[in-house]
């Protein structure tokens, strides 16, 4: 059932990853490899797989947890990049890139809450049968 509320939250997390992909520059942390872009594509792919596995709630929670861990690592990497970046009041260079993984983590946590709520509802209905 794609019309559940957790699908909307997972979709918002995907939008956060795509927004980071679009606004993010090629960070020169790991040489010529666009590390942030690759991670954003992986996060979007995990989100789409999570949306499509709506019938298997345990897999959906697992995929969301993996996405949360990757987003937290990405948030730490972007925070490190932001702290080492030069710039100030006269010449601001700092962007809003660390905001997108944070929003994605919040959306995935809320999605996991609603997935667990659905799981409890299905188990309670099975007990009544």
Please sum up the structure shown.
With 129 residues, this protein is mainly α. It has four helices and no strands.
Summarize the structure in words.
The chain has helices at residues 5-23, 35-52, 57-84, 99-128. The protein has 129 residues and is mainly alpha-helical. The chain has one domain (5-82, 93-128). The relative contact order is 0.18. The model has no long low-confidence stretch (mean pLDDT 84).
Rg measurement, Å:
17 Å
How many strand elements? 0
Largest sheet report: none
Strand content: under 5%
- Low-confidence parts: none
> Could you tell me the mean pLDDT?
84
Topology pattern, helix = H, strand = E? HHHH
Q: Helix fraction?
A: over 70%
End-to-end separation: 22 Å
Q: Specify the number of helices.
A: 4
Helix and strand content put the structural class at mainly alpha
Overall geometric form: elongated
